[in-house]
Every structure is written in C-alpha cells, then in structure tokens.
From TrEMBL:
Pfam families on file: GGDEF (PF00990), PAS (PF00989), PAS_9 (PF13426)
Database matches in NCBIfam families: GGDEF, sensory_box
CDD domains cross-referenced by the UniProt entry: GGDEF, PAS
Domain (GGDEF) ranges: 291-428
GO MF term list: diguanylate cyclase activity
GO cellular component assignments: plasma membrane
Protein name per the record: diguanylate cyclase
EC nos: 2.7.7.65
Primary enzyme class: transferase
Highest classification ranks of the organism: Bacteria, Pseudomonadati, Thermodesulfobacteriota, Desulfobacteria, Desulfobacterales
Domain PAS: 18-71, 126-164
Domain PAC span(s) in chain numbering: 200-252
Catalysed reactions, as listed in the record: 2 GTP = 3',3'-c-di-GMP + 2 diphosphate
GO BP term (any one): regulation of DNA-templated transcription
Amino acid sequence: MPAQLLLQAKAGVACIGLEPSGEISQWESSAEALFGYGAATMAGRDLSFLVPSPEEGETLRGFIKACLRGASASEVSTACMTERGDVFFCRWYAVPAVRESGLAGLAVLVKDVTKQILAVNELNRARNQARSLFSSSPIGIFQADIRGRILVVNPELSWMLGYESPRQLTEIQDDVSSLFADPLRAESFLFQLYEGEQLNRFRCQLCRRDGEKTWALCYGQVTRNAKERVNGFYGFCINISMTVRVEQELKRVNEELRKASIMDATTRIANRGHFDECIVTEWNRHLREQSELSLILCDIDHFKLYNDTHGHQAGDHCLACVAGALVSCVRRPGDLVARYGGEEFVVILPHTDLNGARHLAETMRRCVEGLAVTDERSEAVTHVTLSLGVASLFPGSETRETELVRLADEALYKAKEQGRNRCVVSGESVGGEIPA
C-alpha cells in the first residue's frame, strides 16, 4: 500500500485492497470497524455491496473501473450502509497498486464524511433559505461594498423605488448615496453605520425613478471578511410612506382641533380659555426675566343697544370687525389678541412698558373708531367706538397675573365712567374725545 494511503489509514480511514478484477482481496480491521462486516464476509465481494442504492452502486463501480484503467488519486462520494443497516456518507479514494509484473489491484481508502456532508447540506439549505428570504422579503434589502457601491438589491427595493427589476436599479444607481433624497442624510447614514457597525430606525426619504420621494425606515449592518475586517454592509429599507401620510394628516387634524379649541368661533381670534393659559405663562416668564408685562382690556361701547337694534347677526358681524381691527394693530408674533367675553377683548403685550401699551391702545381706539360697520339687513353705516383700560406691571413673587387683569379692568371702568371712546391708564385720561 502506498505510503500516503498508509498515513491516511492511521488517521482513522478504513483500508480496503482490490484485485485487478475489482473484487475485495484485503479487508483491514479499520474497514470492519467502519462497516461492521468481517473479512470473511467481504472477501471476493464487489464494493457496491456496501452501497444502499443501485444508482450509487453504479457510480462506485464506474469509479473503480476508471481507477483500474489508470486514473490516479481519484475520489467519489456515496452513501454507504453498515451491517446493522445504518446509512452514512463516505468518500472513496483509490490509487493503483503496481508491482514489477504490472497492475496488482487498487488500494482503496474509505472515510466517513457524514458530518461534513450534513454540514454542507445545512449550509446549502441556509443559503437557499437566505436567497428565498432575500427574494421574497417584504422589506427592501441591498448589499454594498465598503465604498458604498451597490452590489445587489432584492425585488422589493426595486419595486419600492419604481424600477422594473433589481438589475435595472443597479444599472442606473450604482452608489448607495444616490438612493437618498438628501445628500446630508446619506452622509449621516454611512457615518453612523460605520461608527456603530449597526444602525437602527434611520428615518429618511429615498429617490424613486420617477423623481418622486418615498419615506423609508432604514437599518444597516456592516459585513466582515475572513480576517474580520469590515468590507461593506447590508441595508434594510421599510416603506413607511403610508405611515408618514397618516402621521401628517393626524398632525394636521390635531393642529386644527388645537386651533379650534383655543379660537373663538364668532371672531376667529383666541378665546378666553387660551387667554387664561397665556397670561399665566407670560406672567411666569416675565417673573423669571424680571421684565415688564402690559395688558389692554377693551369693551365695545353701547354694544347691547347695537345688538338689540340691528339683531344678533349684525352684532356678530360687528364683533368680528372689531376683532379684525385689533389684530391689525399688533405687529409682534408674541402679542395676543383674545375675546375676553361678550363684547370685551383683551390684549397681552409681552416686554412692553406703560408708554408702549398706551400708544398701542390709542392706535386701536382710533382704528375701531374709523370702522364703518354695515348692518347686513339695512345696509346702514354705523360708527362703533371702543373704551380701553391699560395696565402694566413687573411680575413679583408676591403678586399674581390676576392683579394685572384687575388693574386693566379698573382702568376700563374709568374709561366708561369718563364718557367712553377713550383710553385710561392708571386713572389718567388720554385719547380722543366723545364724538358729537
């Protein structure tokens, strides 16, 4: 037996000798240990006796004949069966045994490769399963190298981005960055992925072939080579366009509901409830900042008489016109005009001193005085006037926002007492006279 085969035999491989006719002439103890048959049983038999199926028996006989014809260091794999009927997988090796007189037969080694075969089968099964999942996954998947060059994409990603096939996508888009609608988001995706080796729930917009954008939730996982060096990454994209549309619609509806909850239906300005919230917030903010906060409280003169004379519809129209006039007088985003109740309005003026509040109040008085309010039924032009009370305070720890409201209300009462159509600040009369 050749030296190489002897070394393999010592490594736990069964050894069998064959005659030039292919019959078994030598049955080593290693073969008996592997197959369970004794030498007497196997002497003169064909090796195909050890193979459970006729097809594999023919394969083994063909292998032996080829080796006898001169093929060297050949091998073949088949299933085999022990004397007890156990089936396992073997790999057969054979080389000619040559003497001076010519071919003496074959030296055959048989190795149990069941574990290796099962491992390969399991690996192939896993690969096939991975390919199936890749192809049928409802999530868009792509693989890229370390430079971001797209290597492969699955059908779902190509469909998500409006391409007819994965091949069409990779032919047109060869770089991961080109998939992102925003280059900065693409840069952020790659940076975070390589920094953390894994990236979860990265929300972004991807470019479709038709130029539209689609929202996606992206995940990433780096890949490594045999030396454990990062050589690229997998990307996973979930289409969340419908979710985003629902979120945006919900946000829009909630914003409308929020506005409706803080808006007066008649005048379309802030209502009393919103004023009550804002005045507390502004008071506390100005307390922290040690800044002056001003308030204007105003009332439409003789509104009850106007409402009784012209009707409620005309009264509502009058309220809306006055509200619009007041809003047109404020210039800063932080100023708030609200309906305080009935025919009363209130204006919050953050970071405004008494002189600034007095000036704005007088501007509002003149603006309302200049209104020509029309009765929708009689088309008569009616001049509406306004009485205003102005107050200003530096919030302190011992006072509350109600004190500012009380001072403005007292000033408004004095404006009414002094003849209406005027502004009063801390008992001081300023502004226009009572029209004739």
